[in-house]
Amino acid sequence: WRIADRKLIHTLRIPVGGRDAGYSHDVAFSPDGAMLAFGLPDGTVRLWRLSDETVMRTLRGRAGKVSSLAFSPNGQLLASGSWDGTILLWRVADGTPLRTLLGHEDAALVLDFSPDGVLLASGAFDGTARVWRVADGTRVHTFRPGGGVVEAVAFSPDGAVLALGSWDGWVRLWEAEEWHPLRTMRSEWPGINSLAFSPDGQVLVTGDAWHRMQWWQVTDGALLRDVGGHEDTVESVAFSPSGDMLASGSLDGTVKLWQVP
């Protein structure tokens, strides 16, 4: 979609057969906006060039259904998580698989690179979040928040904070060097499954299974606002690069654009 006039620009169709074969659990834009990655149930990732809707390459791994995707900040790497917990790192230029990250015992639901591209954070159905060093695949830290599924992880824009959101309604902030806990925020609405930092790092927005979004002040954990509007689970939230707009996607089939106060 083009934001300015809400015009639909492209509809990309996956040319594969079989039940659910065209279903994508996650998509990700490359940092330059020229490429879109689709993760598919057959374990492949398709890379599309948006200018002419061409499939540039198909990445084929040995893991199961693709459940999460993330490009590195420089666009040279793509991380893909699967329903068996495996995370693969790919070189985008030629589609070469570089390394496999093992440790999660269930679906790797969400991935996020640190702003400098040195670390990769993952959250999973096994109730853990993990931080990996991208250069060699070493697991740097494991979080066991004890609140069920960890379906939301995000580094702050300066890379100093890692946020985790879990199904028990807790948001936990960790210092991203020694991994000390900074603060926790408790929502009255459980089922947090998406979160996003504002570009200035001052606000964190969460989306949950109760159709709501909550805006939190990062410095002290204060709840700034509680926003309704969707009719089903808020599956994703994302700030515009300028920070003046927030997009939310829901299982109700809508994407809503919100003016940031």
Can you offer a commentary on this structure?
- There is one protein chain.
- The protein has 261 residues and is mostly beta strands.
- The protein is built from no helices and 23 strands.
- It has strands spanning 27-29, 35-39, 44-49, 54-60, 66-71, 77-82, 87-91, 96-101, 108-113, 119-124, 129-133, 139-143, 150-155, 161-166, 170-175, 181-186, 192-197, 203-208, 213-217, 223-227, 234-239, 245-250, 255-259.
- The strands form 6 sheets. The chain has a 4-stranded antiparallel β-sheet with strand order 1-2-3-4, with no helix packed on it.
- A hairpin with a 5-residue loop joins strand 15 (170-175) and strand 16 (181-186).
- The mean pLDDT is 92.
Summarize it:
The chain is mostly beta strands and 261 residues long.
Main sheet makeup: 4 strands, antiparallel
Give the end-to-end Cα distance, rounded to a whole number of Å: 23 Å
Order of strands, widest sheet: 1-2-3-4
Helix vs. strand class:
mainly beta
Low-pLDDT stretches are none
Report the average pLDDT across residues.
92
Q: Got a strand count?
A: 23
What Rg is obtained from the alpha carbons, in whole angstroms?
17 Å
Count of individual helical segments: 0
What percent of residues are in strands? over 45%
Pattern of helices and strands: EEEEEEEEEEEEEEEEEEEEEEE
The coarse overall form would be globular
Helix content: under 10%
